[in-house]
Amino acid sequence: MAAAKSPALALICGDDEFAVKQRAKQIYIQWSEELGGMDHEIIDASVSNSGDALTAIAKLREALNTLPFFGSGKVVWLRDCNFLGDERAASAQAVTETLNEVADELKNFIWQNVRLLISAGKVDKRKTFFKTLDKIGSVESFAGLSADDKDWVERAEVAARTAVRERKKEISEEALAELVSRVGPNARQLESEIEKLSMFTGDKSKIEFADVAMICSRNKTARAFARGDALGDRNLPVLLKRLDEELWEAKFDSKKSEIGLLYGLIGKIRAMLLLKEMLREGWIKPEMDYNRFKAQLERVPADKLPEDKRFNPLALNPYVLYKGLPQAKKYSQSELVRAMDLLLRCNQRLVSSGLDEKLVLQQALVQIVAPQVVAA
After folding, report:
1. Are 63 and 41 contacting, i.e. CB atoms less than 8 angstroms apart?
2. Distance between terminal CA atoms of the chain?
3. What CATH number was assigned to the domain covering residues 9-141?
4. Percent with pLDDT over 90 in the chain
5. How many whole angstroms separate alpha carbon 270 and alpha carbon 275?
6. Residues ≥6 apart with Cβ < 8 Å to 252
7. Is 50 exceeded by the pLDDT of residue 280?
8. 213-217 mean pLDDT
9. 315-325 pLDDT tens trace
10. Which of 13, 61, 163, 188 is the most buried (most CB within 10 A)?
11. Partners of 118 in beta bridges
12. 40: Cβ–Cβ under 8 A, 6 or more apart, which residues?
């Protein structure tokens, strides 16, 4: 006979550390209020070795088997557990065997007035412990933010707005968009930057664009935005400086390459071409207010756009489009078409010639950004 799922047992896990913490905290508070009493226990399960993992498990067993006083209920929270996935501590045989023993105990545990909450990062779903929790309890998984996810911007904005409000503050839409564009799909850094902003703004109740511009750092994704902005602004000195910085980083980062930088530039030119087409069709109009600009995007007829997200402007970060709108005016349609051709030839030279990659990229960018001279 299959064991019945217990509403008193929950595992909250996933790569999105911020979302996991928020959801686990929400459940802990809810359960504590429902059960009342003062016997709730939080066990720190963030460990550095197998010995500490076994200690945390021992504390968990003791907490589950210690009855609450005065007949009230008890919530046990195994918090920030980092030995349920492929971590070093999790690979120890003693830890695996002990977790299997706990899994057997949980199957037969009497949950009257006791609830168990486990929050964790990566979890190995092949292991007995996870399978048991999934079978008899509730499992919620939160995937981390990824630039490959179409909705990562919206998810990051929701998480950021929640974190700001928890600190009794508000944030303007433009400041929120700038924050997300600087941080990119990185929940942990997003939380860190919001904490910095909260401290920086002090007693001020609302975080504004200027605050973000003053205090927030840029990660790798944001630096790519900065390179694109310099291209859009036709600011050659800044563009070449950004290019030098990223070519230097590429020497030490196997995930970065000259071709990757080139594709980022192609994406920026393509975005400006798409913006010009949307303006020509009358789908959008020049707009200084970010909220009103986003509202215009929501009214663009989706059936008029290609399914391929490379050529679909609505697949782009709306803030990138917002910042690209005035930049598109700095180039004529013919200049943007010429820029795509120059970047195509640059791609061919990078792949097939033995020329210095930095020089090839610099030459292409100078030809794109410098004003075209019209013969008399």
Report:
1. yes
2. 90
3. 3.40.50.300
4. 40
5. 9
6. none
7. yes
8. 87
9. 777 878 888 89
10. 13
11. 11, 78
12. 28, 32, 74, 75, 76, 77
Helix (H) or strand (E) holding 10: strand 9-13
Is 221-369 a domain of CATH 3.30.70.100?
no
3 state DSSP class of 12: strand
Q: Residues near 217 by Cβ (< 8 Å), separated by ≥ 6?
A: 182, 193
Where in the chain do CATH 1.20.272.10 domains reside?
221-369
How far apart are the C-alpha atoms of 23 and 16, rounded to whole Å? 11
Distance, CA of 89 to CA of 226 (rounded, Å): 40
pLDDT at 120 over 90: yes
pLDDT, tens digit, for every residue of 182-193? 888 888 888 889
Residues in the chain: 376
Give residues with Cβ within 8 angstroms of 86, minimum separation 6.
Answer: 122, 124
293: β partners? none
Instruction: Give Cα 164 to chain centroid, integer Å.
Output: 16
Residues of the chain with CATH 1.10.8.60: 152-215
Domain boundaries for CATH 3.40.50.300 within the chain:
9-141
The SS3 of residue 47 is: coil
CA atoms within 13 A on the CB side of 340: 14
In order, the DSSP letters of 96-127 are HHHHHHHHHHHHT---TTEEEEEEESS--TTS
Distance CA 138, CA 16 (A): 18
Beta bridge mates, 12:
119, 140
DSSP 205-272: SEE-HHHHHHH----HHHHHHHHHHHHHTT-HHHHHHHHHHHHHHHTT-TT--HHHHHHHHHHHHHHH
pLDDT of residue 374: 46
Residue type, 362: Q
- Cα distances (angstroms) measured from residue 203 to each of 167, 168, 206: 11, 10, 9
- And the tokens for 343? 């970047």
Question: What is 152-215's CATH number?
Answer: 1.10.8.60
